[in-house]
Amino acid sequence: MVLCLHGFPDIPRTWGPLTERLCGAGYRVVSPWLPGYAPSSLKGPFDLATLAQTILDFGDELSPSEPIRIVGHDWGSPIAQCAMASHPERFRAAALLAVPHMLAFEENIEHDPRQIGRSAYMVLFQLPVLSERIVGLGNFRFIERLWKTWSPGFDPGRDYFEEAKVCLRSSMPAPLRYYRALRSPKVFLEVRRLIGASPIVVPTIYLHGERDGCIGPQIADGQEKHFSALFETVKLADAGHFLHLERPREVNAAILRWFEGH
Questions:
Q1: How far apart are CA 150 and CA 24, in angstroms?
Q2: Strand pairing partners for 91?
Q3: For the domain with range 2-261, which CATH number is right: 3.40.50.1820, 2.40.50.320, 3.10.50.30, 3.90.226.10?
Q4: Do residues 75 and 191 lie in contact, with contact meaning Cβ atoms separated by under 8 Å?
Q5: What is the pLDDT of residues 36-88, one digit of tens each?
Q6: What is the reported pLDDT for 184?
Q7: What is the pTM of this model?
Q8: Which residues of 43-62 are buried (b: 16+ CB within 10 A; e: fewer)?
């Protein structure tokens, strides 16, 4: 079984091409709406430790006796990291996309002022009321601008955007509360406890687009030290943040190869 976790501002449909490839190879694939994304619960809390436990519980329901494989893009990546760090025995292998190990992010952003600018939206999202109004203006024009900035030259299609907007319209402000939870010192310490105690022991492949306008590929440098099992990095030269939609053939082939080997 493969559990696929989407990110922000996205929907489970993002895993359509990967699902088709994996199912064709005999895997069972489940791609839920993350907590805070309708029709999933909007109640919260939305700190990483709670989100990881929700995913662990969901994985237990889907595969109570066998470890699963997990794929995480954007927010799905740190959620998967926390889940793997706390209960590695429940995972056979992992594929993480676009967001590196959180400790590597923390270490590298200190030396890259460009990333501070790229991450300014995270500060905006931590402002209640104001951020919700800005994000929702003009039928979520802000969201479309994020996609264009994060994946330059890529357009998922009008119907894709409309489906994502329907989800966001039904979910706000829950998706922004992920970012607001980061302000809590208690949450910060809990996350560091989860992922900082020891390296992740689940075999992991990490994929990143070199044209990513959300998180520069250099922010992933050196993250292999935070993984003690087999670890591989794949960088795609002509892809941005939504690399699995931009370059599905290459991304899906790499993930399938990794899962077949583990």
A1: 30
A2: 68
A3: 3.40.50.1820
A4: no
A5: 999 999 999 999 999 999 999 999 999 999 999 999 999 999 999 999 999 99
A6: 82
A7: 0.96
A8: eeebbbbbbbbbbbebbeee
